Amino acid sequence: MYRAPVFLRQLEPRTARTTSEVLNFALWPFAVMTVLHQVIVKATNFNITDDFAPVYKASLAFLNGRPIYAENFDLVDPHYLYPPSGTLLIAPLAIIDPERSKWCFDSLNAIAMLIAWLLLLKLFKLSIKSYAAPLTLLLMFSSETVINTLAFGNVNGCILLAEVLFIALLLSRREWWAGVVMGLSIAVKPTLAPMLLIPLMRRQWKVFVPAIGIPVVLTAIALPLIKDPMDYLNRTMPYSIQARDYFNSSIPGISAYLGLPSLLTWGIRIGMGVLVLVSLWLLYRYYRNDELFFICTSSGVLLLAEFLISGLGQQYYSMLLFPFLMTVVLRNSVLRNWPAWLAIFGFTTFDKWLLDHWQSIGRDLEYLRITFGWALLLFVTFCVLGDRYLAARREGRLDSGIDPTFLLPEHNPATLPDAPRPPRSPAPSAPAPTDLADPDDEQPTTAPNEAGVLR
Fold first, then answer.
1. d(Cα 348, Cα 376) in Å, to the nearest integer?
2. pLDDT, tens digit (0-9, with 9 covering 90-100), for 331-389
3. Same domain for 277 and 400?
4. Angle formed by the axes of helices 156-171 and 144-152, to 10°?
5. Residues 166 and 229 both lie in one domain
6. How many CB atoms sit inside 10 A of residue 98's CB?
7. Are residues 195 and 307 in the same domain?
8. Which of 198, 223, 241 is where one domain is finished?
9. Which Pfam families does this one have (predicted)?
10. Does 27 lie in the same domain as 50?
11. For a 10 Å CB count at each end of the chain, is N or C smaller?
């Protein structure tokens, strides 16, 4: 009888025997095809918003010694806002023609996001063979932040990789390299700069030498090579700091769009700032030794604060919250509740809430859902941590932490080193299947007869 070669037998479709295998077989085709669609179709098709065009134009001007920071900020088109250090690093983009350059740039960002995904799986001890791998990949590449990053030609994918590398290097105590990654990221786009508060709280001082030194050195190199360096300080930087009333989901941006009074806007910003400070204090006070949870949750709080309180917050910045969202697999995560995921729905989905028949209401729903999503997630984090603190104080166990009682050793005997084993039943029943296993696979293949002998 003919037998196919071994390498061909590996491709033979298998029938799933457990729920986990069913999910794996079902999710991988969806995940892979979604990634291919976003990279091949979304990234190469025409889009009315083009973040890459001003970047390529500035890179070409830099290589040819022409002014870079001569943008007309009265227009609502994407503007070139990268600092001189970023201009120096991205200038090679203009060596080839703009179309192929954008394809290379999008490919680089897609590869960066895939590497970040693999690193996140490793950080949270999730196997590539588990259904968590295709599920997280599918959710990432179905989100607005990934779709529009590739469609617009933005650098967010590389920034996400820098963030995940920074977290991994902090956890492994490779502080110099963590600083190098952060320094290169800040040199291009200072979005991750608030995360430097994490090594400050952990007293990892070596991080700050390259994190600050690299942007300074690159700026010093770039300034003499740029035709109009002072225009960046006099025109571009003031524009990038101020809150504009379009394509801006931060609190100041939404307030400008709705025409809210300045006093109310500052009141909301200060209120959100208080939530951030209290959340960070509780994380530092009670969770700093739980390193993965502390770093990823603190990074989420800091980035949410930046998106909400600073002058500019755009929906596709939400990609940088992926490490925070991955903490849901941790038992003490603050995201294991439905309000958190209602918030996450608000700023990750690609849905449009514009209404043809009720245009005013539709615009408000579309523009406010991102801001409300970020704010609700920050509020949920504050409430969960605050509730844990109040419960622990009420029960007099603050000295042992503020984790909920169901996570404490005395409520989980399996974690106690000296826990006595329960007496063995003379006729044990079959173990109950978990929600990740197929009940049919948990039963013996042969049944005992009345005499206890297997047929």
1. 13
2. 999 999 999 999 999 999 998 888 888 888 998 899 899 999 999 999 999 999 999 99
3. yes
4. 130
5. yes
6. 17
7. no
8. 241
9. GT87 (PF09594)
10. yes
11. N
